[in-house]
Automatic annotation (TrEMBL):
Residues annotated as domain Metallo-beta-lactamase: 31-225
GO molecular function list: metal ion binding; sulfur dioxygenase activity
Pfam families assigned: Lactamase_B
GO biological process, one term: hydrogen sulfide metabolic process
Protein name: Metallo-beta-lactamase domain-containing protein
UniProt entry keywords in alphabetical sequence: Metal-binding
Length: 311
C-alpha cells in the first residue's frame, strides 16, 4: 500500500496519517489483551503489553503466549521496532525481555522496551521491598517516555499519554484514532480498574478516564484486560462515544465525587491480585529473570500473611 499524499499551500507534499493494522490477542488465564500494531506501508510494528505464562502452583514459566506473538509477527513479515508497556503490571508477568531477545536474533536488531518515566518510582518502592539488588532493576528499560512524548514507528505517530490512577507510571499509547489505555478503562460493563496499589489514586484515575473520554467520539479505546461475564465474548475495543454513554463507572452522568467514593469503597473489598508479588518482581526488571543463586535456582520472594499470629 502506498501512502496518500496531500498538497499544502506551500507546494510541498506531505504524508497523510496512515491507519494502523491492529492485531488483538487475548490471553484468557490472566484476562490480558496483547496488541501488535503495525504500519501497513513499512511493516514496522510495536508490541504492547505481552504476557509471559506462569503457573503459581508449579512455578513453571512457559512462553506459549509470547511465541504465538512471534509467530504472528513472522507470518505478517513485521519488523518489530519497539515493545511497549503501559505500566508495571501486578496481575501477569511480562514477556518483554523474552521477546526482545528472540526478536534480536531474528531481526538482527534489538527492539527497545519502552515505558513511562515514572517507572523509577515503582522500581524504587518495590525493589527494596522484595530485597532486590539495585542493579537488577536499574536501567533495564531502554526508553522512558515523557508525558505527551511523540515518537514514530514507520509512518505511524505514537503519543505517550500519562494516565495515572491505577499506578503512578501508567501510560496509554495514542496511535491514529486508537488509544491503548492499559488498565485505565475496561469494557463498559466492567468500568474502571482498581487504584489501591501504592501510588494509586482514585481522583487521578477519574481524571485519566475523563482525559480518555474527551477524545473524539469515534476514537477506539483498547483496554489492557477484559473479564467478560457469562454470555459475552472478550471485547477488544469500544468507541469513546460508547464508553461515555455506557461505562458503569465513568459514563457522563457520573461526577468526580461519586466516582472517588465508589472506587475507594469498592477497592477496600478487593483481594490482592493472585500474581501480585511474582508479577512485580519480574516486571520492574522489564521481564528479566531473577539472577541464578548459588543453589542454581532463580528465586522469587513471597511475603507471608500471618493474620496476627506470631511465635
Amino acid at each position: 500500500m502506498s501512502p496518500q499524499m496531500t498538497q499544502p499551500s506551500s507546494g510541498q507534499s506531505i504524508l497523510e496519517p496512515v491507519a494502523p493494522v491492529i492485531h488483538n490477542v487475548f490471553e484468557p488465564k490472566t484476562g490480558t489483551w496483547q496488541y501488535i500494531v503495525a504500519d501497513p506501508t513499512t511493516a514496522k510494528a510495536v508490541i504492547i503489553d505481552p504476557v509471559l505464562d506462569y503457573d503459581a502452583c508449579t512455578q513453571n514459566i512457559t512462553s506459549t503466549s509470547a511465541d504465538a506473538l512471534l509467530a504472528l509477527v513472522e507470518k505478517q513479515n513485521y519488523q518489530v521496532e519497539m515493545i511497549l508497556e503501559t505500566h508495571a503490571h501486578a496481575d501477569h508477568l511480562t514477556s518483554s525481555s523474552y521477546l526482545q531477545k528472540r526478536l534480536s536474533s531474528r531481526q538482527g536488531y534489538k527492539p527497545p522496551i519502552g515505558i513511562g518515566k515514572r517507572i523509577e518510582q515503582v522500581q524504587n518502592l518495590f525493589g527494596p521491598r522484595y530485597g532486590l539488588a539495585r542493579e537488577e532493576w536499574t536501567g533495564v528499560f531502554d526508553r522512558l517516555f515523557d508525558d505527551d512524548e511523540v515518537f514514530t514507528v514507520g509512518q505511524l505517530s505514537i503519543k505517550a499519554m500519562h494516565l495515572p490512577g491505577h499506578t503512578p507510571d501508567h501510560l496509554g499509547y495514542l496511535i491514529g484514532d486508537n488509544v491503548f489505555c492499559g488498565d485505565s478503562l475496561f469494557h463498559a460493563d466492567l468500568g474502571s480498574a482498581r487504584c489501591d496499589f501504592p501510588g494509586g489514586d482514585a481522583l487521578n484515575l477519574f481524571q485519566s478516564g475523563r482525559k480518555l473520554l474527551s477524545l473524539d467520539d469515534h476514537v477506539k479505546i483498547w483496554p489492557g484486560h477484559d473479564y467478560p461475564p457469562a454470555g459475552r465474548e472478550p471485547t477488544a475495543w469500544m468507541t469513546v462515544a460508547d464508553q461515555r454513554q455506557q461505562n458503569k463507572h465513568l459514563r457522563d452522568q457520573v461526577t468526580q465525587d461519586e466516582f472517588v467514593k465508589m472506587r475507594m469503597e469498592r477497592d477496600e473489598g478487593l483481594n490482592a491480585p493472585k500474581l501480585l508479588h511474582q508479577s512485580l518482581q519480574i516486571n520492574i526488571r522489564a521481564g528479566r529473570l531473577p539472577k541464578v543463586e548459588e543453589s542454581g535456582h532463580r528465586l522469587l520472594r513471597l511475603p507471608l500473611n500471618l493474620n496476627g499470629l506470631d511465635w
